[in-house]
Amino acid sequence: MEKAIVLGATGGTGQAIVSELLSRNKQVIAFGRSEKKLKQLMKEHHSTALLTYKLGDVFDYKTIVEAAKDADVIFQCANVQYHEMAEKLLLLGESVMKAANILGKKIVIVDGIYVYGRQVAKGDENHPKQPHTKKGRIRVDFENLIFNKRWTYAKPLIVRLPDYYGKTSQNSYLHPTLTGMAANKVSVFIGNLKTPREYVYLPDAAKMIVEIANKDDSYGENWNIPGAGLISGKDIIKIVRDITGHSKLVIPLNKTAIRISGLFDPIMKEVVEIMYLTEEAFVLSGEKYEKRIGKIPATSYQQGLKETLHFLMKK
Fold first, then answer.
1. Range of the domain at 121
2. 314 contact partners, CB below 8 Å, separation of at least 6
3. Whole-angstrom Cα distance, residue 148 to residue 145?
4. Which of 23, 53, 199, 230 has its CA 20 to 30 A from that of 236?
5. 3-state class (DSSP) for residue 29
6. Are 108 and 73 in contact (CB under 8 A)?
7. Eight-class DSSP state of 84
8. What is the pLDDT of residue 171?
9. Rounded CA separation 7/67 (Å)
């Protein structure tokens, strides 16, 4: 791979993958709808000649075809909001796969773990896909669309991430906690403070995703992107307080609190059904990655949170 296009390049995972590709001296096309955000991304990377941008809409396959024609790999990092998932996710999948198929390109789909539902066995790529939620079932349909045999020329793979954090994170469960604490404000933590959960540091995730994309035999498969182990919300808050010196109150939000918030916020309303992940963590196995790719990069929570918070406190 010498040249890649990142769809949804100004989002959380998109920015991390752009940075990782540039660190490897790869040419990158940043694709998105907002020229303002794309120009800001260019500025953050000091307008390097390796990075260009193309305006387009992931729901319009023709704009992807035009932008991606010279790329070796398409990284699909665009997403839809929770309350629009039922309406828009499969349309997004159809568009990106149609473009990849027309061009005969490799395409890396970044997705999450809703397809699995509750953990019933080892969290490897063969874990049963028996979701008990509406969003989980939509994600199963999405996977089936990506790997549909009618795409005779596209070469897709799916990478699955747990919840994540990092300086580019925007919509993760942990983000409001870290932004609030960095600003020394009363903040919230979504879920039970005592439940150990898995998070992946976005720069680590980007390294693994690019390594997987570089292997020709990775395509046609699901791949786990595991984090640095389990950690409770209580321990995260302690680390953040030690780093920032801030000690304002952090309020845990349980399912009832989220349900009440959902009366006024359509996104929070949709969070209720996947609150099980904040109460009973799903742990991803990295055994396949270690066997076929190599050592898993796993920045410690102490270091990852330090880097994230230093960035947030400068904003």
1. 3-164+202-227+282-298
2. none
3. 5
4. 23
5. strand
6. yes
7. G
8. 82
9. 10
CA-derived radius of gyration, the chain: 19
Q: What is the mean pLDDT of the chain?
A: 94
Residue 156 CA to residue 195 CA, distance in Å, equals 35
- Helices 61-68 and 85-103: crossing angle in degrees, nearest 10, is 40
233 found inside a domain: no
What does the pLDDT read at residue 263? 64
Instruction: Report pLDDT digits (tens) over 26-42.
Output: 999 999 999 999 999 99
Answer for the pair 201, 225: CB distance below 8 angstroms, yes or no.
Answer: no
Q: For the chain, what's the residue count?
A: 315
Q: Please give the Cα distance from 51 to 79 (Å, whole number).
A: 22
Is residue 212 in some structural domain?
A: yes
Res 314: pLDDT: 86
**CATH code for the domain of 131:** 3.40.50.720
Give the model's pLDDT for residue 187.
Answer: 94
**Secondary element (H or E) of residue 108:** strand 106-111
- Contact, 205 vs 161, CB < 8 A? yes
The closest alpha carbon to 15, from 213, 227, 223, 203, belongs to 203
Kindly report the number of other CB atoms within 10 A of residue 287's CB atom: 15
Number of structural domains found in the chain: 1
Residue 140 covered by a domain? yes
In a domain, 124, yes or no: yes
* d(C-alpha 139, C-alpha 78), whole Å: 14
Spell out, as residue ranges, where the chain has pLDDT lower than 50.
none
Q: Which residue type occupies 285?
A: S
